Amino acid sequence: MMQRATSTPGHVYLLGLSAFILSVGTFPVHAETTPTGMNYLEMNLEQLMAIPVYAASKHQQSSKEAPSLVTIVTADEIQRYGYRNLGDLLRSVPGFYVSLNRGSAGYVGTRGLNRTTDYGARFLLQVDGHRLTEPVYGTLPSQQDFPLDLDLIERVEIVRGPGSSLYGSNAFFGIVNVITRRGKDINGAEMALSTGSLSTNSARLSYGKETEGGTELLLSGTLYGSSGNNDLYFPDFDYPAAGIDGHARGIDADHAGSLFGRVSYKGLRLTAGHADRKKQIPSGRFGAIFGDPNTTNWEKRTFAIADYSYTLPSNWEIVARGSFDHYMYKGNIPLLSSEEQPIDYKTDIDARWLRGEVQASHTFAGRHRVTAGGEYHSLYDLNAHLSYATEGHYLDNRYKTNVRFASFGLFLQDEFRLRDNLLINMGIRLDDYDSFGETINPRLGVIYSPWERTTFKLLYGQAFRAPVLSEMFYQSADDPRNINPFLDPEKITTYEGIWEQRLAPWLQTTVSVYRNEISDIIEFSPYADTIGSYIYTNMGETTVKGIEAIVAVGKEQGIRGRFSYAYADVNVQHTGVTDNSPRHLIKANVLVPLGSDRYTAAIEAQYVSSRLDMVGEQVDAYWISNINLFARPFNDQFDLSFGVYNVFDEKYFDPASSLPFQTEQDGRTVRLKVTYRF
Amino acid sequence: MALQTLKIILCAALIFFCGAVPCSSARKTSPVLLVKVSFLLNFMKFTEWPASVFPPADQSLLLAVLGEDPVATQIKQSLEGQLVSDRTIQVAIYANLPAWQQARTMPHALFVSESMSRQWTEVLALLVSHPVLTMADFPNFCAQGGMLNLVPHGDTIHFEANPGAAKKVSLSLNAQMLQLAEIVSTTKEIAP
After folding, report:
1. A470, A331 in Cβ contact below 8 A?
2. Residues with Cβ < 8 Å from A343, sequence gap 6 or more?
3. DSSP alpha helices (H): ranges in B23-69?
4. Which of A162-176, A206-220, A567-581, A662-676 has the lowest mean pLDDT?
5. What proportion of chain A, given as a percentage, has pLDDT over 90?
6. Distance (Å, whole) CA A281 – CA A333
7. How much is the pTM?
8. Smallest Cα–Cα separation from A460: which of A419, A418, A426?
């Protein structure tokens, strides 16, 4: 009797426990732990109080259950590590590398691929769910061309692997998802001033507020200016006989300004942004007269987004979004003419497009989380001109009237919770482009957590990148024949296995093994028999096999950090040239509290192994170290940050897309930044 | 007594196995629980104990959990071994009041599970005036003399604090933390 009486409560407890855990298990899941080692245990009370746990208006997913290897960089890390631009941030991400040719953009690569011969376009950039990747070049803006001040970012999610089954074009190697801070997080005014080496200065003023009625407002403006590197040496231009010594002096200036604003009320958000950036190009690229200060790139990006999310009483979650984007690019390259008078080779691009999308999510039978939606994109206005000696076009826009630059996509995804610790993620998307027609991209992920601290992911997926307009309508000088508006998209098939293991509360390891098979790569290749004439065509295949290992250590207010190693073996079958493909990437990020978390020292080390440039010459391996000291000395009103970048003044180069094939990078620089909230 | 111990061991073992092997009835980590235990960790970080409660050579901070809610297992999993100003958290779960009494250990911090909410006043009596930080996640905990309590707030979790109750046993709750809390007062002399 006694035994019976005492064992019954035990069963009751267990039943209750099971029921509770089950009921908890049906809650939408948010990021709980991430490969960066950030987890709830590291959050402060304010952050914890902001986490919606009981219901979610939008479908967010934990990185543990995402069908990808995900890295999250938070606002706190951006401040403590002293990241100056998105490129700095991405360089710290396991398996990523950024090549700078000191032109407009930095080119972001991962898993062995960052081809110097094209514009990248293999990452999808989203800001608060809005696709910011422009359709002319598609490059991921990672320098001052990124239209948002980094201080406005709440977090950046770097989702590796093919994402076209949900997001369409460009989600080829991954998605860079930027989530901005909310007005109520700023709650007042915030001012940031910075100054540093190379006469680099910036100023930001932001204002954020939530009214009692629940309307949220955020306004921010940033100005940036830098004289750039005053002396860059390009051995390719060291011709004493021609009167040039290879030194580009004082022609690396960079000026940018941006505005960002948002008003939101309940599920409705209106967001607008504008960015303007002018960069001098010191490298004498594309045949520019070396040393001419008028070699410039000028870009403008404008976007306006309206989105609305709503949960129907039947628990259908609806997200609708409409947006307008404008992209302007003006390039100026002074060329020597036969008359010995420089002629400005001008590229003038102006593109405007609209996008609309609707997405609905619902959980069926407690096990199927289904998301379905559609997207329509219309590039309704494109002007692309080239002035070069005689009238001409850079992008041949005679096709403008014949081809509608429109596309649509339809997608369906089911996250099927087969068991509580076994999730099957299935997705498929159809995209239809006016130019090349249809493409269908599926994805299948099996996410299994056999034990509390262990997660295995088996992933298969396909993705595509639509040819960008600069590839379809590129026209070599004086040869109108060679545009290729019927280019096919590049395709990628990825097989990946991921093992995430939390060995201790303060120690998480992640290992990923993958194989990428890329086909129909768009190559810039000689056209027919015409010397100097080129065309973009789909060619051959590339396979990449690799492994990535990440160790995240540490606890809140203790020493914490992340160490990673990435290996990529690239095999370009059709050309045999594997330019800009470092085999090894090693990274270490360590944050050391000095006394308390109000004072931290952030130390970064990054190794990029040797690569080849586009003509097959070796670009030497390099180690770069950065240190950033961060202080919040008195209260939360005031932050001080002092960074030393490339501490050991390492001289290193990145491969570039034209002569000079290697571009010198900055030596040691410093930056002092003050943030004041009032 | 032996039977009770056996019961506790059995329960603990079952809970352990439920957490350790694939078990169709248990989803392994839920953000709700993780967020809750993260709050608890913060609570302990923002509390100052009188130095006298820590034996000189011992670097541990004892956290007792009363009751067998899922929060209890999550606390054990997530907080055991965590550091609170150089002290390592050691978690002990007691299924019920007699189990705790039997252990004869006065912890530095105590979490009272919702399943024990009805016995809270008894627990309070057992604590006498020991400097034990008391925490819970059930209604009216602070109003009944508890120190820190997790409360639902819309779709998020907020917390209540009863700084008077802490002060009475020589514990000091950090002012920064109190700024974020909803203050519940059960003592009259709290106003400056």
Report:
1. no
2. A334, A335, A336, A337, A388, A389
3. 31-45
4. A567-581
5. 50
6. 9
7. 0.72
8. A426
* Contact: B41, A505; criterion CB under 8 Å: no
Work out the burial of residue A533: count CB atoms within 10 Å of its CB; fewer than 13 is exposed, 13-18 middle, 19 or more buried.
middle
- Which residue type is seen at B43? F
Q: Which amino acid is at A564?
A: S
d(CA A259, CA A535): 38
Model confidence over A355-393: pLDDT tens digits? 999 999 888 887 888 999 999 999 888 877 765 434 444
B 87-146 near A (Cβ less than 8 A):
95, 115
Distance between CA atoms of residues A423 and A447, nearest Å: 5
Residue contact B11–A10, C-beta within 8 A:
yes
Give the pLDDT mean for B153-179.
86
Question: Phi and psi dihedrals of A462, rounded to 5?
Answer: -120, 150
Query: B140: which residues sit within 8 A by CB, 6+ positions away?
Result: none
Q: Is A618 on the interface with B (CB under 8 A)?
A: no
CB hemisphere CA count around A82 (13 angstroms): 30
DSSP A250-296: S---EEEEEEEEEEEETTEEEEEEEEEEEEE-TT-GGGPPTT-TT-E
The DSSP line for A347-363 is EEEEEEEEEEEEEEEEE
Q: Where are the beta strands (DSSP E) in A317-465?
A: 317-336, 342-364, 368-388, 390-392, 405-419, 422-433, 437-451, 454-465
User: In whole angstroms, what is the distance from residue A238 CA to residue A248 CA?
Assistant: 10
Domains of chain B listed by start with CATH number: 2-183 (3.40.50.2300)
Q: Is residue B132 predicted with pLDDT exceeding 60? A: yes
Which chain B residues are within 8 Å of A421, Cβ to Cβ? 22, 27-28
Residues 434-453 of A with CB under 8 A from B: 449-452
Token pair for A371? 């998301």
pLDDT at residue number A32:
37
DSSP A29: P
Closest CA to A611 of A572, A581, A585: A581
**Please, are residues A80 and A602 in contact by the beta-carbon 8 Å criterion?**
yes
Complex-level ipTM beyond the 0.85 threshold: no
What is the rounded CA–CA span in Å between residue A179 and residue A291?
A: 40
Strand order in the sheet with A153-160: A70-74, A153-160, A174-180, A123-127, A130-131
Chain A residue numbers with beta carbons less than 8 Å from the beta carbon of B42 are 44-45, 48
Give the three-class secondary structure for A668.
coil
Six-digit token string for A240? 């004493």
pLDDT, one tens digit per residue, over A586-617 is 999 999 999 888 899 999 999 999 999 888 88
Residues A473, A135: contact at Cβ < 8 Å? Answer: no
3-state helix, strand, coil in chain A (%, to 5): 10, 55, 35
Q: What is the pLDDT of residue A395?
A: 53
Q: How far is CA A533 from CA A119, A378, A476, A480, A527, in A?
A: 19, 31, 6, 10, 5
CA atoms within 13 A on the CB side of A332: 13
Q: Which of A140, A136, A220 is nearest to A178 (CA)?
A: A140
Separation between Cα atoms, residue A524 and residue A279, nearest integer Å:
25
Q: Count how many Cα atoms sit within 13 Å of the Cα of residue A596 in the half-sphere of its side chain.
A: 8
Secondary structure percentages of chain B, helix, strand, coil, to 5: 45, 20, 35
At a CB cut-off of 8 Å and minimum separation 6, what does B55 contact?
none
Name which of B84, B178, B171, B182 is nearest B127 in CA terms.
B171
Instruction: End-to-end CA distance of chain A: give it in Å, rounded.
Output: 69
Q: Phi and psi (nearest 5°) for A246?
A: 85, -5
Q: Do B157 and A29 touch (CB under 8 A)?
A: no
Q: Give the residue from A668, A665, A657, A621 showing the smallest Cα distance to A232.
A: A665
Pair A231, A247: CB distance under 8 Å: yes
